[in-house]
Amino acid sequence: MNEPINEETISQEKMSFLDHLTELRRRLIWSVLAVAILFGPAYYFSNEIFDFLMKPLIENLPEGSSLIFTRPAEGFTTYLKVSFFAALFLAVPFILYQGWRFVAPALYKEEKQVVVPFILFGTLFFAAGAAFCYYVASPPAFRFLLNEYSSEYVKAFPTIREGLSFLMALIFGFGLVFEFPLIIFILARIGVVTSKWLREKRKYAIIISAMIAAILTPTTDAISMMLMFVPIIVFYELGILVAWLFGKKKKQEDTDEDDAEEEMFK
User: Fold this and answer.
1) Distant-in-sequence, close-in-space partners of 24: CB < 8 Å, separation ≥ 6
2) How big is the chain by its Cα radius of gyration, in Å?
3) Where are the domains of the chain?
4) Which residue, among 134, 136, 99, has the nearest Cα to 118 in the 3D structure?
5) HSE (CB half, 13 Å, CA atoms) of 145?
6) 176 and 186 in contact (C-beta within 8 Å)?
7) Which contacts (CB < 8 Å, 24+ apart) does range 247-251 have?
8) What is the percentage of the chain residues whose pLDDT exceeds 70?
9) Could you tell me the CA-to-CA distances from 143 to 62, 65, 146, 242 in Å, in that order?
10) Could you read off the pLDDT of 205-230 as tens digits, one per residue?
11) What distance in Å separates the CA atoms of residue 253 and residue 166, rounded to the nearest whole number?
12) Which residues pair with 159 in a beta bridge?
């Protein structure tokens, strides 16, 4: 018996490459608008946000050192950057929703119903990554970088622009790394990756993870890189488990359907 024709599926199959690019642009525009709307309230509280963000750096400054700025407009532009950083962080749930809307056409009807858990856990994972960076990774990184090479004649006086840029890169880097299990969940559900494939590519994943850690880490010191590298490997292994739990059933169903079709034509 033939299955009923799904008009939504037909329309999705007819989407061209340019249609996908148009849809991607639409989602990016909505995400940018969300950040722009949140920028105003974030700028209003930029002083408090800046003081909070700089705390791990200030607490690990060598004795006699302090934060400085060397250009007339550096203070103003730094607080603009703080506001943008806060607005982008607050917009994460909406950005995840836009990302979901972009990939949703490739999912089955029942898979589209997990949009709320996707946004919830995506936001929680990103926040967990940011918190891990702020409370665990950044203090020892600042302690090593600012104190290891300081002496009686050499003092660290980091600028507020460089200190903020360093911390922003770390926080968003860790936030993205903590999203890895969620990305694997989506890819496993749509059949792009499987747990077996991830296990087979583990040795390549280690090399790529080291490269990613080196890119996402603002400095070249081993401590900062290892603090980024270890979570990537941990979440890769967790991604294998996620793919096994959520991708295996779908793969088995597809295999059963293929076997049934082969039996029909024998």
Assistant:
1) 102
2) 23
3) 16-178, 180-266
4) 99
5) 23
6) no
7) 247/188, 247/189, 247/191, 247/193, 247/194, 247/195, 248/194, 248/195, 250/188, 250/189, 250/191, 251/191, 251/194
8) 82
9) 8, 13, 6, 36
10) 888 888 888 777 766 667 777 878 88
11) 47
12) 68
For tokens 């990016």, the residue is 28
| Residues pairing with 68 in the sheet | 159
Distance CA 194, CA 197 (A): 5
Q: Is residue 149 within 8 Å of residue 58, measured between CB atoms?
A: no
Q: Which residue has the tokens 């941990």?
A: 234
Amino acid (one-letter) located at 61: L
- Tens of pLDDT, residue by residue over 85-121, are 999 999 999 998 898 888 777 666 766 677 777 788 8
Residue type, 77: T
Cα 144 from Cα 117, distance rounded (Å): 39
Cβ within 8 Å of residue 218, ≥6 positions away: 165, 166, 169, 170, 224
Residues 56/142, Cβ–Cβ less than 8 Å: yes
What is the SS3 assignment for the chain?
A: CCCCCCHHHHHHHCCCHHHHHHHHHHHHHHHHHHHHHHHHHHHHCHHHHHHHHCHHHHCCCCCCCCCECCCCCHHHHHHHHHHHHHHHHHCHHHHHHHHHHHHHHHCCCCHHHHHHHHHHHHHHHHHHHHHHHHHHHHHHHHHHHHHCCCCCCCCCCCEHHHHHHHHHHHHHHHHHHCCHHHHHHHHHHCCCCCHHHHHHCHHHHHHHHHHHHHHHCCCCCHHHHHHHHHHHHHHHHHHHHHHHHHHHHHHHHHHHHHHHHHHHHC
